[in-house]
Structures are given as C-alpha cells and as structure tokens.
Amino acid sequence: MFQLLPGHIQPPGHRTRKSRLVTKDGHCNIEFGNIEYSNHFAFVVDFWTTFVEIRWRFVLVLFVATFTGSWFMFSLLWYWIAKSNGDLTAQNQTEEHVRCIDNVNGLTTAFLYSLETQTTIGYGGRALTGHCAGTVALIIIQSLVGVFINCFMCGIILAKISLPKKRAKTVTFSNTAVICLKKGSLCLLIRVANLRKTLLIGSQIYGKLLRTTTTPDGETIILDQVDVDFMVDAGKDNLFFVCPLTLYHVINRSSPFYELSADTLPLQDFELVVFLDGTAESTSSSCQVRTSYVPQEIQWGYSFLPIISRTKTGKYRVDFSNFSKSVRVTTPHCVHCFETDGDQRTPNKENHINQLKLGIDNLGFQVIDIPDPVDVTKMKGE
Question: For the residues 251-280, what does the mean pLDDT come to?
C-alpha cells in the first residue's frame, strides 16, 4: 500500500509541450477573435492603458515618431509664414523688407528652427523679429505642445519601467509540484521564493484547477474553475515572505484531487494555476505572480529537498540549486488507501488500549470456592 523506491534525487521537471492556459512564467495563452469594430475603438478611448501595455519596440517607435512628426508639422507652419511674408531666398526682397523670422530661408532652415524652438536649444542664429503677430502665437502653441509631448512620453516610459509585473519577475515557483505525506495527511506541495530581500507585504496564495467538465444536463464546460486552497504552517494569509516557502494543499474529501492515485494522475487532463498576490515593500504597488502545473509536472511520492541552512557566522543560507529538486519518500498509492489503512489501524489501537486497561483473560485459570478458615484459637480454662 505504501510505496518507497530506492532513494535518489529527482532533477527539476522539464516543461511539457502540452497546451496550457497559463505558461510557466505567468503569461495567459488566450486569443480573442471576431471582435466588433466598436470594441476595437474602446482600446483607443483608453489610450493610456493601451500605450503602457504595448511592447517597448512600439514605444520607441512612438517616441521617435511623435517628436519628429511634431517638429516637421510646425516646420511647415514656419515655412508657410516665411513664404507668406516673402522671407525665402528665392523671393525678391527689397531693402525695406521686414522679416518675420531671421535666417529661415527654406524648408530645411524652417525645420531646424522648429526643432530648436520645441527643444529650447536656441542657438541664436534663427529667431523671431517680433514684427509678425502670427509668429508670436505660433511659438506659444508649439512650446505648449512640446511640454505636453514631453510629459506624456516621460509618463509612459516611467509607467512601463515601474510596472508591478516587473517585480513579479523576481518571484519564482518550483518547476514541479509533489504529493507526499505531511503532518499525517496526504498533501500537494509547491515551492515559491522571493529573489529580492525586500518583502512582499500582505501576500496571499491561492489556486484554481482548470478542467473540462460535463454537467448532468450534458453541457460541456471548457475551463471550468475549481478553488484550490493553499497554506503554510503559519496560515494562508499575510505570509512572512523572507525566505522560500513550501505551500501545501491537503487532499481530503473536499479536495478536487481526492479521486486521484499514483497511476491515474499522469492520465488526467487538467491545469493547476497558482496565484500569489502581494504589495511590493519598496514601491507600494500591488503585483500578482502566477504559474501553472499540468499532471505531468506533479510528482506522486516525492518530497522537496531542504534548501535552508545556517552558516557558522549565524546567517541563514538558501541553496537554490535544490529549489526544484525532490527525492522519493514513502507515500500512499491513493487517498482511499491512506484512509482505509488509517481506519484499520484505529480499532486495533483502541483494542490495544482497552486490553491494557482491562487486562487479558487467562483461559487456564480456574475459580474455586475457598471455605472460611476454622478458628482453632482456644482460651485457657475453656
């Protein structure tokens, strides 16, 4: 009933090619199709979130295109003003001609003047003369537009750099999960580690079991979600996440893994998604870390190797080389086997206790009647 193979270290589990909803690094493998045009317009309305979530390559293209495009658009306006006033080189100018912009003689010099104005370089070679009211209004408009573009682009870059999901990159889960005995119960165990010394405040751990189910009415539900509770020895809320933690889920009658066994586990078709929510101590931003396990990544009858030790100087050391490694241990073949064996041991234990209290009947012992003893003591003189 209990199986124990020769002890050896199990290497970290390899990633399978099985299709999954959540990848090992937390990305959701889902695609949206047949979205109406009006729904696409919603992404444009929420432009800030759209710009923050796009890839860095597109942000860089947007950065270059926005600044270059604004410089060129205003250069066309400066060129138009100069041409309207007769300031270009090809135009005939009299001695009494009053220029609107000095040294703007063509489209190239107009572009350079637009760039110098918006970036506040001001080399001094090209400048307004103050004789044209339109140039004063245009330089005010371009300065305000330049400030707005600077703030917008700096905000996007800062927001992308400080995204909470970047903090989630420094939180890692074990490559595999294991099933073994813990505190007298059959449990599913996973490991999670915070690679930074700064803590995740208010950390909470929970899981979702995704599988395809069929209702009694014959309806097939794809990605049916079932809650899976995880906890540590100190509880399941407000984890003290200063060192790697081993999270466990007790497999009992209320567990979705209750019907599994060591033989049927690899044949199952489900995905266990594990979530860790917390608040970064240094930035006070909330983040979520997630990963998933398929049946081929759950090892029945294994236990994780210890990774925390204490050095001679009194410091605690974490050996991440054993973070995902496991070793075979004595484990029941299934939950039913464990419960049946436990029920059989319980009456025997109670009978043994009762026998200690009441004693054991000796069949060779006979009970006989002993008559009262005759008083042979006589007094003198009788």
Answer: 89
Same domain, yes or no, for 180 and 293? yes
Find how far residue 212's CA is from the centre of its chain. 24
The residue length of the chain stands at 382
For the record, the structure tokens of 239 come out as: 């984890």
Say yes or no: 89 and 148 in one domain: yes
What CA–CA distance (Å, rounded) separates 307 from 323? 7
Mean pLDDT throughout 131-156? 92
Average pLDDT value for residue range 265-292 = 87
Q: Highest mean pLDDT: which of 49-63, 162-176, 279-293? A: 49-63
Last residue of a domain, one of 144, 164, 184: 164
Choice among 63-67, 185-189, 341-345, 359-363 with the minimum mean pLDDT: 359-363
DSSP structure class, residue 322: G
Neighbours of 330 (CB within 10 A): 12
CB 104 within 8 A of CB 82: yes
**pLDDT higher than 60, residue 367:** no
Q: Are 191 and 289 in contact (CB under 8 A)?
A: no
Least Cα distance to 1 among 348, 337, 347, 339 occurs for 337
Residue indicated by tokens 């009441």:
358
Q: What is the chain's alpha carbon radius of gyration, rounded to the nearest angstrom?
A: 39
Rounded to whole angstroms, how far apart are CA atoms 208 and 129? 70
Residue 349 lies in a domain: no
Confidence of residue 345 (pLDDT cuts 50, 70, 90): low
